[in-house]
Amino acid sequence: MNFLRFSVIVSFLFFSLISCVDEPARQLTEKEIISEIAREWNCSEDEEGFALEFTATVSADPDNDSRIYIYNFHAMGSDSKLYAVVNPDLTLDIPEQTENNQVFRGKGIVSDDYTEITWDYTITDEDDNVTSVTGIYSLGG
Predict the structure, then answer these.
(1) Tens digit of pLDDT for each residue in 42-101?
(2) CA–CA distances in Å: residue 8 to residues 3, 12, 16, 21, 118
(3) Residue 126 CB: number of other CB atoms within 10 A?
(4) Among residues 65, 62, 57, which one has the least CA distance to residue 82?
(5) Residue 102 and residue 83: Cα distance in Å, rounded?
(6) What are the chain's domains?
(7) What element of type H or E holds 98?
């Protein structure tokens, strides 16, 4: 009887301890991430020592659940847009694409609280000059 009581107590303690382990946070889908970041952003970029401040708008691509459009990317005007591919690990890929006779390519990282996007990308002009740009998109305040 004592052995049975001891076994029950030990089992209870064991299961109490393992039930306290936190489960990892659920990873959002690309569509869920897009719903968090689709909005207007305040942008601050550094283009090899030249500072640039502007606003850009991120919107969902209605035909692709893992892609966003970025309007006024690099302050090119609200009619100009680039697209980026959204990944579940909160990274954004800007595949090589041409806008305003310039070729863009790069990456972005979305903060865990969806209030900031950090960009690193390159611009290649018509003369094959490559410029590196870093930027931060943040929510207005």
Answers:
(1) 999 999 889 999 999 999 999 999 999 999 999 999 999 999 999 999 999 999 999 999
(2) 9, 6, 12, 21, 53
(3) 8
(4) 57
(5) 14
(6) 28-138 (2.40.128.420)
(7) strand 91-99
